[in-house]
Write a structure and sequence with these properties.
It is a single chain. This protein has about 350 residues and is an alpha/beta fold. It has 2 domains: about 120 residues, Leucine Dehydrogenase, chain A, domain 1 (Rossmann fold); about 200 residues, NAD(P)-binding Rossmann-like Domain (Rossmann fold, 3-Layer(aba) Sandwich), CATH 3.40.50.720. The strands form 2 sheets. Strands 1, 2, 3, 4, 5 and 6 form a 6-stranded mixed sheet that branches. It is globular, with a radius of gyration of 20 Å. Bound molecules: nicotinamide-adenine-dinucleotide (NAD). Nicotinamide-adenine-dinucleotide binds next to helix 5 and helix 6.
Length: about 350
Amino acid sequence: MNAPLTKRELTTGAACVFDHPEFDAHEQILQGFDAATGLKTVIAVHSTRLGPALGGCRVWAYADDADALTDALRLSRGMTYKNALAGLDLGGGKAVIIADPRKDKTPELLAAFGRQVDRLGGTYITAEDVGVSDADMEIVAGVTPHVRGTRATGLGDPSPYTALGIFVGIKAALMHRFGSDSLEGRRVCVQGLGHVGMGVARLLHEAGATLIVADLHAPSVERAVAEFGATVVAPEAAHAQGADVFAPCALGAVLNDGTIPELGAPIVAGAANNQLAEARHDAALAARGILYAPDYAINAGGAISIALARPGGDDTAVRDKVIAIGQTLAHIFQRAEALKQPTQAVADAMAEERLAAA
Ligand code: NAD
C-alpha cells in the first residue's frame, strides 16, 4: 500500500492520481475546468466492464480540492459494486463539482458541467446526487444526452424505490434471522425520517410493525408520531434501542467502535450510504452476531429506478428489480453464514464475481 499523499502533493500535482490511496484501477478520471463559469469538476469512471458508468453528480463545497478527488474516486468505485450487485448492465462512475450548491450553482455552471460529461461520449452517464435537483439535471440534459433521472428519461424522485428496497431487505433479514418475514408485532427503529426514512416507516407501519423513530428535524418526528403512532427517541440513542431491526436512514459511519457494542437490535438494515465507519466494522458486527444488510446492496432501489426508468412512466420493470433486492440479500446472508464471513465481504465478492464474468 502506498503512503497516503499529502493534500499539497495531490493539489499541486506533485504526485499522480495513480498513487492516490483511493485509486482502484479507475479507467478514466477527468478533471474539468471552465474559466467562464468557474466550474471545477472531477468525473471518475471506475469501471465500464458491465456497461456505461452510471452514477450521480454531487455538488459540494469541499474544504479542499483534494477532498473532491478522494470523494469521486471512492464514490465511483462504490457505484461499480452497487450496479453490479443489483444486476444492472451498467458500470460505475461519479462526478463531483466543487461549489456551494446554495450559492455557486448557476445554470451556466451546470451547462459547463454538461459539456464535460458530453466529452466523455457516453462512457459516463450522470444523474442527481447530493446538492443536485431534478431541475438542475434538466439543464445538464439540454447540453448532453448522457443523463438519467430527468423527466424525459426517468420516474422522478428515486427515494420511493429506495424505500421499497429497504422494506423488502428488512423482510429478507427477518426471514433469515427469525424464519418469518412478517412485520406484525416487530419493533423497528428508523433513524432519519427524510425522503427515504419516512417512506420506509410508512411501509413498515402498513405491514404491522411498531416504530421507534429519531430525527433532528422536529416536524418529521411529529408527523411519524401522528401518522404511525411512533415512539420518539433522541437521534444519538437510536442505535441502542431494544428492537428487532435498526434501520439507519440518515448519516454514514453510524456503525463504529462506539455504537457497535451498544446496538440494541440483532439486525441492521437501512438506507444510509457508507454505514460502516471502517471496513473492519463489518467483522465487528459479525462477531457480535448482528445480521448486517450491506448498505449498497439494500439501498440500490434508487439507482435501479434511475437506470431502468423509461419514458412513459411504467415502473413495472423497476419495481420487479427493486423487489429482487430481497433475494440478493437472502443469498448474501446464506453465503455469509455458510462461509462464516461478514456480509459486506460476501457482497463485495458477489459483485466482483459478476464483474470478472463479464
Ligand atoms: P434526506 O436528506 O431526505 O433525509 C435525511 C434525514 O436524516 C433528514 O430528515 C435529517 O433531518 C435526518 N438526520 C440527519 N442527521 C441525523 C441524525 N444524526 N439523527 C437522526 N436523523 C438525522 O436524505 P434521504 O434521501 O432520505 O437519504 C437518507 C440516506 O439514504 C442518506 O445516507 C443517503 O445517502 C442514502 N440513500 C438515499 C437514496 C435516495 O434515493 N434518496 C438512495 C440511496 C442511499
